[in-house]
Amino acid sequence: MRPLLSALLICLCHAACAADWLTVASDAQRRVELDRASILPSDAGSKVAWGRIVLSDEQAKIYGYRSVRALNRYDCRSHSFMIVKRVYLSDDERTMREDRIDATSPSAVKTGTIDDRFFNEVCKPASATDLRKVAKQAVEQMARAELEDKPSLRRANIRLAKEEVAEKPASEAKGSLSAAPGASSPRNSAEEAPALPRRVTREEIPPPAPLVVPPRARDPAIIRRSTPSRTNSVNPALAAAIAAARSSTTPHSSHDLHWSYEGENGPANWDKLDPQFATCARGTRQSPIDIRDGIKVDQEAIQFDYKPSMFRIVDNGHTIQITYGQGSRLSVMGRSYDLVQMHFHHPAEERIDGKSFEMVAHLVHRDSEGRLAVLAVLFEVGASNPLIQTLWNNLPLEKNEEYAPRVSIQIADLLPEKRAYFSYMGSLTTPPCSEGVLWLVLKQPVQLSAEQLNVFSRFYPNNARPIQPASGRVIKESR
Ligand SMILES: [Zn+2]
């Protein structure tokens, strides 16, 4: 019997390694996340990774735990997975209960479910850099763990890791973390590239399935059960990765397209998530801004040519977005811009003389040369807004699932009575923060009810980029 190195590594690592949580789905009740730092090759063609569901305060009270983590084993070739272990954690990350799952057979990953998104993220081909990163973390972690508690156990693990590297273990590659009969994937050498699914892009990400909280999680009893790691396999892919790490001086690199409004992937770090997002930090004409000291002039009226249209609505993970039928446009400063889409931010991103607003609609327009003009309609709480109500009535139930209701709307109904506006040159307020965007911010806010505002804030409590420096930009204001 040999210790199952990857299981030990992943458990050790998970106890103390810096996790890299990627939000795969979220709603008002819970957040579903994958720890990318935990993804490790298991036996041939499969990988293991930790995922977790973090509950809202309200849900945590109901279920008696804050989060549940699951260690899953993914068979990247047969598009299936197994839960190996579940751990229920309290507010302060204390283990409340630990369940080892002895599943008898792997479950097929159904297209369009959260499991499918986890699968795609875990099973996408690992680059050499990724492998080195993972292995380097594992080696570093083991070295660190040696100095911490349970030193003898961890020293044993390090010794085993060294043995793994020293050996030629492909012939022993068998078994799985799940230790379930019939769960092993066909044997394979580490060099053979397993048939991996094509990585889906964000736009293609299918909608997640509704999350089912495991019934056992409702059990209020707090049971602490220690589960010794099963031990029966060596891991050629991991050994190769460790070897690669040892001969590598490649610095850690992380490219991440999964930007958000808070935490590590929040606005302050957008530029670091992808080279294409560099403008978010280096740009000098960024949006939003606090609009003040405008030059009061007679700005020409914006000509609106909005037609009633059917629409599509999607919760794209950053906002609720409406796609409108073709043929609607606005004209200003000698250019005609087609309406492309509309979306919302709560609170409003732009401020006027320091004043903030509850919400804003950004109507994104593009001209024939690809130049963008964004019309901002500010919202304050007051009377119910019929157009917003129609949109909210048709909110999709799942993220990234576009819904095309059989309802037509007139986007012009959203505009305030007075069309005086501020204009300035800025940027997209989301990555890649591209500049050269003409901003047209209507001065008169429109109203929506507190209830309507509350609906949006349940989806997005805060999806506003912080104010950017105006840096002496010219701002014009209609008199
Ligand atoms: Zn926007």
From TrEMBL:
* Gene3D superfamilies (UniProt xref): Alpha carbonic anhydrase
Region feature Disordered, mapped onto this chain: 164-215
Coiled-coil ranges (or none) = none
EC numbers? 4.2.1.1
Q: Which residues form the Alpha-carbonic anhydrase domain?
A: 257-479
Q: Name one Pfam family in it.
A: Adhesin_E
UniProt keyword terms in alphabetical order: Lyase, Metal-binding, Signal, Zinc
The UniProt regions of compositional bias labelled Low complexity, in chain numbering, are 173-186
Signal peptide positions (record)? 1-18
As its record notes, the protein acts as a catalyst of: hydrogencarbonate + H(+) = CO2 + H2O
Q: Specify whether Zinc is a keyword of the entry.
A: yes
Annotated InterPro entries: Adhesin_E-like, Alpha_CA_prokaryot-like, CA_dom, CA_dom_sf, Carbonic_anhydrase_a-class
Superkingdom in the source lineage: Bacteria
> Is Cytoplasm set as a keyword in this record?
no
Family, according to the entry, reads as follows: Belongs to the alpha-carbonic anhydrase family.
Its protein name is carbonic anhydrase
Tell me the organism.
Uliginosibacterium sediminicola
